[in-house]
Amino acid sequence: MTRAWWLNPAVIIIAAFAGQGVCRAMHVDPHAPSMVRAAVVSILAAELALVPLAMTRGAPQATMVQSGLLATAVQLFCAAAMSGGVLWVLREGPPFVFWVLPFYWISLAVLVAEIIRAIRLAPALPAGAGKP
């Protein structure tokens, strides 16, 4: 679980550098300020999504599954709310949207991989534990 706290920001930063490199190779303006804002929004949303998993660490698999579902919802709504705030307050345009979308999907893939890992590491309920 602790690797997830640094893995999401690292993957987003690597994706930002890769995207900037592709834009430079194609002689297209990468809109660096929009890219940085989109990366910050995606990193914050991804880190906030890890809170439900951290709160239920050591819980049974069924609890971890519910925590994973909550984590993906937290990431979605945090990313949408923060992106809306950036678009409204800072009057960002299409470059911000074009950067935030791939960062969101990349961070979602990393988050889901961490959720699957957490579920696999969680203890299963012993036989008969759910029966009265």
Describe it.
By secondary structure, this protein is mainly alpha-helical. The chain has a domain of 90 residues. It is 79% helix and 0% strand. It has 5 helices and no strands. The mean pLDDT is 91.
* Biggest beta sheet summary: none
How much strand content do the residues show?
A: under 5%
DSSP, total strands: 0
Rg estimate, integer Å:
18 Å
Share of helical residues: over 70%
Features:
132 residues; mainly alpha
Brief synopsis:
This protein is mainly alpha-helical and 132 residues long. 79% of the residues lie in helices and 0% in strands. It has helices at 2-25, 32-49, 51-55, 61-89, 94-121.
Helices, strands, pairings?
Layout: H1 2-25, H2 32-49, H3 51-55, H4 61-89, H5 94-121
Helix pairs in contact: 1-2, 1-5, 2-4, 2-5, 4-5
